[in-house]
Every structure is written in C-alpha cells, then in structure tokens.
Amino acid sequence: MSSTVPPPVTSVLEAASTWLPQGMTAVERRLGELTAAHGAALAADAGATLSAGGKRLRPLLVLLCAGPGGGERAVRAATAVELVHMATLVHDDVLDGAPLRRGLPTIAASSGRERAVATGDLLFSRAFAELSADGGDRQVELLSSASVSLALGELAQRRDAFDTSISRDRYLERCALKTARLFECACLLGRAESGASTDVELAAFGREVGVAFQLLDDVLDVTGPPERTGKARGTDLLDGTVTLPLIIAREVDPALGEVKLRDLDEAGAAALCDRIAATGGLERVRALALERVEAAKRAIAGAALSAEERRLLGLVANGVVERYA
Questions:
Q1: Which distant-in-sequence residues (6+ apart) come within 8 Å of 5 by Cβ?
Q2: Domain 2-322 class in CATH
Q3: Which of 13, 172, 242, 250 could form a disulfide with 21 if both were Cys (CB 3.0 to 4.6 A apart)?
Q4: pTM value > 0.70
C-alpha cells in the first residue's frame, strides 16, 4: 500500500499499527471494485481517474478518526469521501477545460465533456450508495452537507473569476467551502455513528488542515515546476482564479491588481508568477499555512483520543506542510 501514496501519507502508515495500512489497502481495493463495475466506457474513465493517483488524505482521515475499531463501516465511509473528491476533480476539469491533471490527460480531454460529466456523476452516486449500504444516516447527512458546500464553493469561485480585487476574507470563504469542508467531513465520518464526544475537536482539526492544504496548493501553483505539479505554472491564473499569493502580493505591489488575467497566455502567467514571488508573498502564505497546521494540532490536544490517534493525526498535519517543502 505504501507505494501507491505520496511520502507524507506513507510516513503515517509506517508509524501506525497494522490496522491503518490494512484499512487503506481495503479502501484502495474497494475503489477499484466500484470504478470497474458500470460498463466498459464509464469503467475505463473512472478507472483512469483512480489510477492517476492522489494523496488519499481524506480517506486516511476517516480511518484515523474512526480508530482501530472502525471496521467495514469506516472503510465504506473512507471510500465514499474519496469518490466524492474524485468526482469533483472530474467535474472541475470539465468546467475549466483542463487538458492535464497530475501530468495525465483529463477525462474531459481524452473522452470528451459528456463522458466526463457522466463519469463524475457515477462517482458521486457510488459514494452515497456506499454509505447507504450500511444504513449510516448520519454519515449520509454529513457527506451530503459537505457536497453542497463544495458546489457553493465552486459557484463562488466562478463568480469571482478574473476579479483581481477580491479580498482575503472572500478567498478564505471559498477555501472553507471548496476544500476545508470535505476535510472536516472526513474527520467526522469515521465516528458519525458512535456518538463520539470529539466532534468539535475533530471538525476544527479538519477545517484547519484543509485550509492549510489549500494555501500551500496555491503556493505550488505559483512556484511549480510543471514536472512536479503535472500542470502549467500559473494554471489558476490562466483560469482566472485569484488565490492568496496574488492577493497578498497585490498588497505589496498594487500594480498587480491591474493585471488583466483574461489576456494571459502560459508565458504571461509564468511572468506573473515571478512578479508574485518577488514580493515575498509566497513566504507569507506559507507562514499562514503553518499557523493553520499548529492550530489544527492544538484543536485535538485535549480531545478524547488515544495517544496513537493523536500522534498520527499530528503526522498528517505535518505531512501537509512536508509535501510542499
């Protein structure tokens, strides 16, 4: 299992007792079963989405928060949250007209928009079928609410497209909806049916880690390089998505607020990335992400978790930072 996930996740699996890597192996196996079972065309596209890889942070969080006694219910919840994440990526690529993701052709590019939309719909539907199989009403409620937040975040991002004047608060609101909400959901899904008293702490942990993850991902969009990110440097800028590195850089160099993002080509986006980096804005965003990671670890310091669970969650939070080091 450790060979199929990136080093920060691998380090968590290697530090855990056998129940965690066994659980992640079961999730990976179940994802393969579900993406292969719905006709040749959809199976090929869903399978390509799965085989493109991913960090698997969200299912890892489900299993960690469920603990060693989570069993099959936790595996199903972890599978469901990753299916929703995969679905959003496929649909995002349709909306963006993205040619690449993780260095490989997107489903929209290789199979067309119609099949990509159908693939995303399939992944969404299988996620909720996976939860309902165990009668987990609370789990379905949590994932449904998170999915609504994802849609609201996407709509907000579309409304803000190419607007270089958006505020830091508006950006963070989008992060909370589009990224942090699913991390929070993952932390709650594992214990959803147990009446756990740790919901507040785990939700706070998930939110802070999710925002840190997005902040650092936006830094990586500016720094690249393409061979690491699997996409052109400044792809967010080319799509008209204004992120915190540009917002903070604009505070140092107000002329950046006058840039016409619609006029950018790849060379122009790379040049704009250089201007953003020259302001020192990237270091400030990284510092804010580190603050979020520390806040996440503080949130669970007094939670009713085992020593192993608290230690492994701390490794996940640290791993978010290490991935971008």
A1: 13, 24, 55, 56
A2: mainly alpha
A3: 13
A4: yes
